[in-house]
Amino acid sequence: MSFQDFPKTGLVRLSAVLAPNGPIPVSKSTWWAGVRTGRFPQPLKLGPRTTVWRAEDIRALYQEKCGA
Questions:
Q1: Among candidate residues 12, 4, 1, 3, the one with its CA nearest the CA of residue 57
Q2: Is the full-model pTM beyond 0.85?
Q3: Long-range pairs for 4-10 at CB < 8 Å and ≥24 separation?
């Protein structure tokens, strides 16, 4: 999925955020470390095993880091 195909609004799972399916090219462990330190957006918990992020937050992160 390219950044242009990434949803503008809504909620996305981690598999849609991280490469190769998503626009952010980091590993899961790097992503979670960044969430803990505040480098990456905080998730929303929808249930005990369901974690999502706001698509708007991911788009803002991508545009901030990549200048797109």
A1: 12
A2: yes
A3: 6/55, 6/58, 6/59, 6/62, 7/55, 8/55, 8/56, 8/59, 9/55, 9/56, 10/54, 10/55
